[in-house]
Amino acid sequence: MTPLWQREPVGVVGLGLIGGSLGLDLIAAGARVHALVHRPATAERARERGLASAVSTDPAVLQGCGLVVLALPLDRLLDPDPALLAALPAAAVITDVGSVKGPVLRRWRELLLAAAAAGGGGPDPSRFVASHPMAGTARAGVEAGEIGLFRDRPWVATPVATPEASTDPAALQAVRELAEALGARWLCCDAEAHDRAVALISHLPVLVGAALLQAADAGGGETCEGADLVRALASSGFADTTRVGGGNPELGMLMARANRAALLEALGHYHRSLSSLEAMVAGEEWAPLQQSLARSALLRPDFL
Amino acid sequence: MTPLWQREPVGVVGLGLIGGSLGLDLIAAGARVHALVHRPATAERARERGLASAVSTDPAVLQGCGLVVLALPLDRLLDPDPALLAALPAAAVITDVGSVKGPVLRRWRELLLAAAAAGGGGPDPSRFVASHPMAGTARAGVEAGEIGLFRDRPWVATPVATPEASTDPAALQAVRELAEALGARWLCCDAEAHDRAVALISHLPVLVGAALLQAADAGGGETCEGADLVRALASSGFADTTRVGGGNPELGMLMARANRAALLEALGHYHRSLSSLEAMVAGEEWAPLQQSLARSALLRPDFL
User: Fold this and answer.
1) Residue pLDDT, tens place only, B3-57
2) What whole-number distance in Å separates Cα of residue B50 and Cα of residue A245?
3) Alpha carbon distance, N-terminus to C-terminus of chain B
4) What is the ipTM for the molecules in this complex?
5) Residues of chain A predicted below pLDDT 70
6) Region of residue B35 (phi > 0: left; psi between -120 and 50: alpha; otherwise: beta)
7) Are B297 and B267 in a shared domain?
8) Which residue, among B57, B113, B67, has the nearest Cα to B89 in the 3D structure?
9) SS3 label, residue A131
10) For B111, which DSSP code?
């Protein structure tokens, strides 16, 4: 059967890095893309860049879409505009691209149940598919979208299967077909497991790198022929270690806020690992230190 | 006046990444390079690669060298072969390329004073110039040396000027001319300041990245369709943050051992920075967290 994204227009809400890249790939694949954006200037630029077949600041642009992708920043995803909610077609499959999944699932189930209870006739909660394409660059905004961003990257969905709530298999399949059409590697897992994993491999590195920059600043202060010594001597290793820690502060804060419990748990694991290494340095246990560093070196290739 | 490295043969002790790269650049610049290596197989391969004009496992190869560069791993630099010490020409300027400077300076002053007191007639302690070319790749060994490794990289010297010991200005100048001939950016600073700076920007990131790998391993363990979830989802951000933490464990241990006090001090700064960020997450202080991350983002460009 023809995939949903080919049969009916695809709605994209937000045309930043993820939404814009989705739009470019979908247009290239022959889909009709109806995009909703916040500001008229964004709509104009998105039209110039060809990010969608129709772009509007009016939520009515989503009418007739079979599949709607919410490509919003986490704060707006967790606290969406009521006009957006009201405009979601009742029959549509809805998915999001947020980097945390438990809070998004809980919030959108609540919102869609409330809309149904109020007789609003919005989409069924079972047709909300929480997902997370794990792709990105350092860029943001309407200029950031690029062709092929999702190719060979994981696209994780976190379907629900509890007595109170479950994800419609057909809705899940529709999102999978979209993801795979863009070349992504489809994965399904539990939302809480996803959030613990991204806390460890994505949100914790932000704090670790940010702290390293502040430590180098605080501990530096020696000068060398007029130049600050730590800054003069920092090499590519320091640049790499701090890349995500020196990234967009608002995104970093939003991820920490939305994934607070998992991030604190990840920090707990991190403190144990670092304290163990530090104790070896303090205790001059050089053979165990080398063994521990060797274990880290052996672990790393599995993460690449 | 013609620089020392052009007037007299340059001795290079060790032909790993740094020694081999030095040899290639110096040969290309027209210098005579006399290299001392540990193993006959290394000597043979070094000759094939053209890393020096003469290569031997016999310390006598250093005879007649006006400038000798000790390009040894930290452990062998801090505990050198007595035969090497005995073979250093009495009139030579000696420099090293170790990544810590205080311990190297103290140790070599001791060794050269002891040699002089024993009537061995080795180089004068004032003509030992501690230095640190801040260049590297992930490679090691006789195959690692490459042309142009030092170009545009800092080359830090840590001359001494105390009543008991001081560095001969002519010796310092001879090393500077060598470094600048290879395209390096010459800097002088205090040895303890150097060691504190590299603890912050080079040795601390090793522990931070190593701990992050171990935390992801310890906190992971959820599986997703058979694959380990943290490993399946780790992205380029995680790879960058852990690059130096997953590096050579022996080098990491040797740097920690030689720079222990400065590394523990750097860890103190780091704990304060990370604890502050963690307290904001725990206390749900989102505006201060965003401000703190913004400060890190502003700091980073100065380190690049």
Assistant:
1) 999 999 999 999 999 999 999 999 999 999 999 999 999 999 999 999 999 999 9
2) 42
3) 36
4) 0.91
5) 226
6) beta
7) yes
8) B67
9) strand
10) H
* pLDDT at residue A33, rounded to an integer: 98
B172, B206: one domain: no
Supply the pLDDT for residue A226. Answer: 67
Same domain for B121 and B144?
A: yes
Q: Which amino acid is at B206?
A: V
Domain of B94, in residue numbers: 4-189
Query: What pLDDT shows up at residue B273?
Result: 98
Residues of B in contact with A276 (CB under 8 A): 214
Whether residues A273 and A127 fall in one domain: no
Yes or no, beta carbons of B202 and A294 under 8 Å apart: no
Q: Do A225 and B270 touch (CB under 8 A)?
A: no
> What are phi and psi for residue A254, nearest 5 degrees?
-65, -40
- Asked which of B137, B156, B189 is the last residue of a domain, the reply is B189
Are A163 and A206 in the same domain?
Answer: no
Q: Given pLDDT bands bounded at 50, 70 and 90, which one contains residue B226?
A: low
Of A194, A208, A217, the CB nearest to B208: A208
CATH number of the domain bearing residue A249:
1.10.3660.10
Q: Which residues of A touch B231 (CB under 8 A)?
A: 302-303
DSSP letter assigned to residue A166: B
Give the number of domains in chain A.
2
A69: β partners: A12, A95
Contacts of A66 (CB under 8 A, 6+ apart): A4, A5, A7, A8, A9, A10, A89, A91, A92, A93, A174
Q: DSSP 3-state assignment of B304? A: coil
Give the type of residue at B237.
Answer: G
Same domain, A207 and A98: no
Phi, then psi, of A70 in degrees rounded to 5: -85, 100
User: Which of A135-144, B122-131, B208-217 has the weakest average pLDDT?
Assistant: A135-144
> What does the alpha-carbon distance between residue A132 and residue B127 come to, in Å, rounded to a whole number?
61
Identify which of A61, A48, A55, A113 has the alpha carbon closest to the alpha carbon of residue A87: A61
pLDDT on residue B222: 77
Burial of A185 per CB tally in 10 Å (0-12, 13-18, 19+): middle
